[in-house]
Protein 1
Amino acid sequence: MQHAGSEPYSNSNEPSWPPVAVPGQPGHHAGEAPTSANDGAPGPTSADISAEEVVPDPEPTAGSALLDELRAQIARFVILPSSEALDAVTLWVAATHLQPAWQHAPRLAVVGPAKRCGKSRLLDVLTETVHEPMLTINTTPAAIFRSITEENPPTLLVDEADTIFGTPKMAEKNEEMRGLLNAGHQRNRYVTRVVGNDHTPHRFATFAMAAIAGIGDLPDTIMDRAVAIRMRRRAEVEKVKPFRSRRDIPALHDLRDRIAAWARPLLDEAANLEPEMPVEDRAADTWEPLVIVADLAGGHWPRLARLACTRMVAAEAAAEDHPSGARILADIRRVFHAQREVDSLSTEELLHHLRQDPEAPWAEWGRGGLTARELSRMLREFEIKPGNVRMADRTQRKGYMRNKFLDAWRRYCPAVHPADADTTRGKD
C-alpha cells in the first residue's frame, strides 16, 4: 500500500527493517520473534532476499487512515522538502497527542536558508493540529516552564528562532531558552527556582515536545535533539492552497480531535512498546515516538516511518560532514573564478556578486541580505578573516585575499567546476 507522494516501494536498494511492535499485542517488544506473518515489519529488503520472503504491511487500523488524512491536509498548505519529511511531520503531530507515554520529546526543527520557505505556514498548520499548542512569541523561559505540567505537557511552538539564536550575541542572551529546550527533550529534567515571599525552592518540569522554526540552523545542541525539516522555496510549478483561518481551522480541529480520540486509549500501550530502531543513540531516542505511532497505526506507516528515519538521519549526518558553511565557500570560489581569479576582492564587491546569484540564498539571507558582518562570522570558523586589500585603482579597501581560501576550498568543497579546480591547483 502506498500513499500519494511517497516513493515507490523497492526491494533491491534498501536495507531490511527490524521487526516492529504489533498493535493489540502490548507484550511484543524489540527482540521478540514475530508470532505471525504480520508481526514482522515490512519494508525494503536486500537484493539477495526473494520477493516471496518480503513481509507484507501490517493490517491498518483506524489510526492509519487518520494519519493519511493528516498527511494530505498538511500537504494542502505546505510543500515539504521530501515525502519522508512530510511523513515525519505527520507522525510528529500525532505523537504530540501521546506525550505522557514518551521518555523523550523530539524537537521538530523547521529551518530554511531564507524567508518565504513555508516555515511559518507549517507552524500555522501545526498550531491547529498538535496537542495543546503553546505559542512562545515574546514569551520568557520562566513563563514557559511555569506552563508545563508533567501530567499534560503542552506542545511548544517557537517561530522566528533566528531572532533568539541567530547570532552568538543573541544566543548568549537567550541561553536560558536554549537550556530549557535542551532539558525538555528528556523526561525528569527539571529547573529549580525560588518562589514566593519566603523564596522557597521549587522544581519546574521542562518535558514537552517543541517545534522550532527559523532562518538558518538552530544551535547544535537543539539540532541534535530534533527531527530536521529543511524547508526550501516553492518552485513555480508547486502549488499550495492558501491558509484561511475561518475556512480551514474547523476542519483541522475536527481532525485533531479525532486523532486525539484514537490515540488516548493507546497511551499505556505506547508507553510499553520498545521497537527496534534503524538508527542508534540520540537519533533513536528522538525518532522512537514517531516510529511507535506508526506501529500503532499499522498499514504502510511502520515502513514509511523507518524509511523516513533512516534517510533523514543519514542526510543530517552527511550535512555534519559537509558543514553548511561549505555553501558560502563554494559560492565564493565561483565568484573568484568568474572574476578571472583575481588576487583579491573588496567585501562590497564580493557581497554584490554573491547576492546576484539567483540560485543562492544570499540576497535574502537573514532579514536584509547577507551583510559584511555575517559574512565575516561565517568565514571565521574556517580561519578566514577580512583585511586591507589593494584595488585596481591602487586604493585600499576592506576585503578578502584569494589565497586565504585555498586550504578551506581543498578541505570543504573539493567537488567544484573543473575549470575552478584547475585554476586553483595552478595557483597553489
Protein 2
Amino acid sequence: MLRAGPKRGSQQHGNRIVADSFVEERLLKKVPRWRNYLEAKFGFRNHWYPVKFSREIAEGEVITAKIMGEEILLKRIDGKVFAIRDRCIHRGVKLSEKVECYTRGTITCWYHGFTYKWDSGKLCDIIASPNTPIIGKKALKSYPVEEAKGLVFVFVGDPDYEPHPLSRDVPPTFLDDDMVAHGASYMVKSNWRLGCENGIDDLHIYLHRQSPLVPNTQRSLPLGHTDRPDDFYELFEASDGPKGIAPRKFKDAKPMAYEGRVEGKVVVTGTKMHTTPEEAAKKRTTGHYVCLPGVLRVDNFPFTGLFQFEWYVPVSDDTHLYIITIAKRCATEEERAEHEHEFLHRWKPVSLEGFNNEDVFAREALQPFYNHDDNWLEETLVREDNGIIQWRELCHRHSSGVQKPSDVL
C-alpha cells in the first residue's frame, strides 16, 4: 500500500526555501484532469526506468548515472548490478569524485572513509573513526535493479513502496522470450514529457516527410491524418498490467493526407508507393502503444516484423535520456546474429540517426516554449491531438508519486 503523500508546502534546505511543487497552484487548478502530469517535470516516482545498456557496465566497474535529478552509482559484482546514491551521508560529497573500493562489495568515501555496502547501502565502516556508534545504523539510499533485454532498469521510489514487477512498466511483448533488442541512447535537451508526446503525436509525421528511411524501406508515408474520431485511442488501465493508450483497430482504414495545400495550391506531397493493398499493409506502421512511466512501442517499424521500443527517461527538468531499441523475434542464434548486424549497419544509421534524430530536433525546439508552465495552457491543440490529452489524463489518474524538488536535492 502506498503511504500518504506529503502535504503541499515548502521545505528548508540550508539557506534555501524550496517549494514541494514546481508549478503554481493557480495553474494546477486549471487542469484538474491532468494536474499530476503538469507537475511531473522530473517524472513519476515508484517506477522502473532504464538508465544504461548492460554492455556499458563491465564486471567490477563503477559508473555514474542521473535519473529524475538523482545522481546514482552503479557497479556490477559477480554479474549482478547494484545501485546506490552518489552522495556520502556524512558531508554530502560525491563518492564518484574519487572512487575507492577496497573490497569488492563496498565503496569508501575518499574524504573521511565512510564505507558502504553496495547491496544495501548500509554504513559498515568509517576508516577515520572506526568506533563511531552510527556504524551499522545508517545507510545510503539504494535502488532496486533489474536487467532485461540488454537494459539495466533502476526503480526510483519511496522507501516503503514495494517495487512492482518490471512487466507493469514496459509495453506488452517487450519481455517475450524470443524478443531480441539492440539499441542506443541519446541525451536530449528537452523535458521527458515532450518526448512522450512527440512519440504519439499523430500529426508529427509531416516532420519526417524527407527522412532517408522512406526510400530505404520503400514505404508509404503520408503528411498527416484526417477525420480522426474522438474514440480513436483505446485505454489500457488493468490493475495488474501497464497503464497506457494505443490506437483502436478499425475495420475500415481512416483517411490520410498525401497532399499538402496552401491557399488551394499543392505545395508538398507525401510518399505513396504503388503497391497492392496486401503489400502496403505489410510495409506500413500498424500501430503504437505508450505506457507509464514513459515508454513507446511502435509495431512494424522501422520495417515489417520489427518493433521499436523507446524510453524517455527524466534526467532533469529540461533534459531526458532517449533510449531507442529495435527488437525482433528470433528463434535461432543465426537469426540473432543477423538482427544485430542489420541493426548496426542499417537501422542505427538510417532509422535512429536518420529518422529519430528529427524527433530530437523537434523536442529541443519545443523546450523553450514548454519550459514556461503557463504555456502548457496556451497551446492550441486540434482534434487529431486528442491522444496527447488522453495520455496526460491517464498519467494523472495512475500517478504513483511525482518527483519533488526535495527528492532531487
Protein 3
Amino acid sequence: MSAKVIDGKEFAANVRAKVAEHVARLKEENGITPGLAVVLVGEDPASEVYVRSKGKSTVEAGMNSYEHKLDADTSEADLLALIDKLNNDPAVHGILVQLPLPGHLNSDLVINSIDPAKDVDGFHISNVGLLGTGQKSMVPCTPLGCLMMLRDHHGSLSGLDAVVVGRSNIVGKPMAQLLLGDSCTVTIAHSRTKDLAEVCRRADILVAAVGRPEMIPGDWVKPGATVIDVGINRIERDGKKKLVGDVEYESCAAVAGAITPVPGGVGPMTIACLLANTLTACCRANGLAEPEGLTA
C-alpha cells in the first residue's frame, strides 16, 4: 500500500483563499477590516522569521497587521500595559504574543491577560476550558489545521479510533478534545505509555505530536490508517541538515492510507488557521455569521 500524501501547502493555500474571500466581503458589505496584532519580545531569530511570515500572510489576506516589537528587557508591567491597550482597541480583533518569552516574563500571566475573545492562539485558560467542555472557543491553530485536513480526507470522523501521541497544552491535549468533539474514540499516549507500539497500532487516526525525530516507525501503524505528523525536528544526516517529523516517513507511508509529509504537511496550516481564527474573532465581535469550514 502506498499512502495518499495530504498536501498541507495546497490545503493551506485554499484556506487562505477562503479567508481572503470572506475578508473582502466583510469590507464591501459591512465596512469592517479584521486586524491582527502580533507582539514580539526580544530578538529570537526563529521567532522573528515567524512573525514576519505572519505579518505578510495577514496583509495578503486583506487584513490589517499590527506588529509590536519590544526589547528583550521589556518589563512585565510594560508588556501587560500594551496588551491592555490592544484588548481595548476595536480595530484589533486578534492578539498573538509570540512564544517563547524572555525568562523574566511570566508566560501564563501574559497569555491570560489577553481578552479571550481576541486570543487567536487559543491558549487563554478560558478558551482551554471552553474547548474542554465542548463550548464555542478560540481553538489553537495547529490542532485546528489537523482537524480540517482530517475532515477533508475522511468526511465524518464519527466512531474512528484516534491516538494522539503527545500531551502538550499546545497540540496534544486540544487535538484530543477536537477529535472527541467529532465523536472519535480518543487515546492520549506519551513517553510513559505502556506498550506504546501496540496502542498506536489500533489507531484509525494517528497524530504524532511528541517532538522526537522519527520516533514512530511503520510497524507501529495500522494498515490504512491516517497519519498526521505534527513534529518538525532539525537533524543532521550524512553531514547535511534535514527537517523530519515524529514518524519515519518512508516506512509509515508504505503502510498508512494517508499521511502528512514534513515539511509541507501540518506546518503551513498553522498560519492559515491563525488567519481563520482572526476572521472568526472579527465576525463574533461584530455579531456576524462565522465563516463556514474555517472553525471547529
Protein 4
Amino acid sequence: MTIRTLLVDDQALVRGGFRLILESAPSIDVVGEACDGAEAVALARTARPDVVLMDVRMPQLDGIDATARIVAAEPATKVIILTTFDLDEYVFAALRAGASGFMLKDVRPAQLVDAVHVVAGGDALLAPSATRRLLDRFAGELPGDERPLPDLRDLTERELDVLRLVAQGLSNAELAAYLVLSEATVKTHVSSVLRKLGLRDRVQAVVLAYDVGLAKPRPR
C-alpha cells in the first residue's frame, strides 16, 4: 500500500529535502506541498493524504490551527508535527489539536521514512517518554480545549493502571515487565483503553492522563 503524504513548511528548501527523502521510498507518495496552514487545509481536502508533515510556525495559519481543521475534516489523516530541538511550547497545543506525534526537523532520512510508516499504521510517532518530557515541561501552562473529558469509569482497574503507566512514559515492553503480563496482553489493554475513551493513539492517551490528573508534571 502506498502512503499518501503532504508536506507543510514555509521554507521551500525544507519541503524539497523532505520530498527527496520520502520519494526515495517506494511505499511513499508525496501528493502535495503547502507553504502555510491555510494552503495545507485546502490541499488536505482535495489530496486526502494519509500523513501530513506539519510545521508549527507559519504565516496565514499556523500548524496548530491547521492540524485541528485537518483532523476535524479528515479523521483518517494523521498529522506529524515538525519541531526544533527545543520542543517549543506550540507543540503541546498541536498534540491537543489532534496530532499523532512530533519529530525533530534534523531527523535522519531513514527515521523520517520510518516515522511516516509508523503513524500511517496507527501508532503514536515517538516513545511515550519523549511525549512525557514535553508534557512535563508545558502541562498547566497552556489552556486546554473545552471538550468534555471521557468518563474513566468505563475502564477496568487494570486498564486504569495501564493508562497511568503509559502517561509515565513506559513502553509496551516496560509495561509488560511491570505488570507481569505478556506484551500481547499489554497491547490488548492499550487498544481497549483507546477504544473506550475514543482516542486516536497513545499520544492522546498521555494528554488525557494529564488532563484528568492521572499524571502530574514534575516540579522544575
